[in-house]
Specification:
The chain has a single domain, classed as Trna Endonuclease, Chain: A, domain 1, CATH 3.40.1350. Helices cover 31% and strands 26% of the residues. The chain is built from five helices and eight strands. Helix 4 links the parallel strand 5 and strand 6. Helix 4 packs across helix 5. It is globular.
Length: 164
């Protein structure tokens, strides 16, 4: 099975110093967040992670079953998260300027529909405390399942929340 998945991705870049690599799904189509996705993939790969950049695939397609098959039977069934980092699915969310508080909440809501691991674009500069409070309210009061939240801002990536 792992060999079949290997054939669905082509290696784009390897980092010999860290052992990380970026792979692109065969048939990848560029989206509006293309540059950000590859910048994030590069940051993770430089840390030694194996990053696979995915594209939208119809859930009835054989490719979907091979790449996103682990999502079957979960609430994320029929979804296509943007990245697979070391076998875990991550969804990247960004927003259009101008910044408003409600946009952070909307990004987290949209991201949670795709994956329990989210990467948020914060280049417009929302307060980290606001993001952490939003996550706290969702996990403790609304009982939503959030495993990890990363913030991508100014060419860096920060882990803001990780489920204990």
């Amino acid at each position: 099975m792992n060999m079949v998945i290997q054939q669905l991705f082509t290696t784009c870049k390897e980092f010999s110093n860290s052992g990380g690599q970026i792979e692109i799904m065969v048939g990848y189509t560029k989206k509006s967040d293309h540059k950000d996705l590859f910048a994030i993939a590069r940051l993770f790969a430089e840390k030694g992670e194996r990053v696979q950049v995915t594209t939208d695939v119809h859930f009835k397609d054989e490719k979907y079953k091979k790449v996103f098959g682990e999502l079957n039977g979960t609430k994320y069934e029929h979804k296509c998260p943007d990245l697979i980092i070391n076998g875990k699915f991550y969804e990247y969310e960004s927003y259009e300027a101008p910044f408003r508080k409600v946009k952070i909440s909307n990004m987290i809501s949209k991201g949670l529909k795709q994956s329990s691991r989210i990467i948020i674009n914060n280049n417009k500069g929302a307060n980290h405390r606001l993001i952490k409070r939003n996550i706290y309210n969702r996990t403790y009061f609304e009982n939503q399942k959030i495993d990890e939240v990363w913030i991508y801002e100014r060419g860096e990536i920060y882990l803001v929340y990780k489920k204990q």
